[in-house]
Amino acid sequence: MSEQLDILIFGAHADDAEIGMAGTIAKHVAAGYKVGICDLTEAEMSSNGTVELRKQEAQAAADVLGLTIRTNLGLPDRGLFVTPEIIAAVTSEIRRHKPKIIFAPYWEDRHPDHVMCSKIVEEAVFNAKLRRYMPELPPVNVQQLYFYFINDLGQTDLIVDVTEQYEVKERALSCYESQFSSASSAVVTPLNQGYVERVKARDSLVGQRQLIPYAEGFAVKSPYLVQLFKPKEA
């Protein structure tokens, strides 16, 4: 299915994008942007839940956020590597949806799949503009690639005020009961030991330097274009 998007977010697993930037997603959807998420794997190696349940939870979260589309490439969980085949799969997704802006996980994280997802997406964004690469699909020149944080907070170049959208973020995260609820989990993991509360504390900390109750942080590798430096309104 092809649906042209303004913003496309990649995650290694369903819930990655919600952890890092559900508030930002909700804010842009409310502003009229077409936003989609592509999960690279079905998270079949997760300690709790099942593939089918995770798909249901992902769709529920997509409905909460108002996504235009959510897809899953079905790549192997804990089998993500920078290979020509995997780069091609992600490049195809970019070319099908023609997003102007792409988000990927930050390039440093405790989970190797998040790190690999970051590298794969960066490679795919580059390949997507090459006219002689996969010529069966028209090239796409992505305007900007941003990186969001999942487990580890790194150098934050930009922040988005998501105070008004924070209740939506909490509802989106609550869809993943199999991952975050200790009551329904058979196996103790970092995710069901107060993880959502720590995400909330992190988002509060990110906003603190600008006196914002809740903000989500992002990193960039290429310079961010500004037309004018404008002072804040009083």
TrEMBL record:
Protein name from the UniProt record:
Bacillithiol biosynthesis deacetylase BshB1
Q: Name one Pfam family in it.
A: PIG-L
Q: Which organism is it from?
A: Paenibacillus sediminis
Instruction: Read off the PANTHER family from this record.
Output: N-ACETYL-ALPHA-D-GLUCOSAMINYL L-MALATE DEACETYLASE 1, N-ACETYLGLUCOSAMINYL-PHOSPHATIDYLINOSITOL DE-N-ACETYLASE-RELATED
The record's SUPFAM superfamilies line, in alphabetical order, gives: LmbE-like (SSF102588)
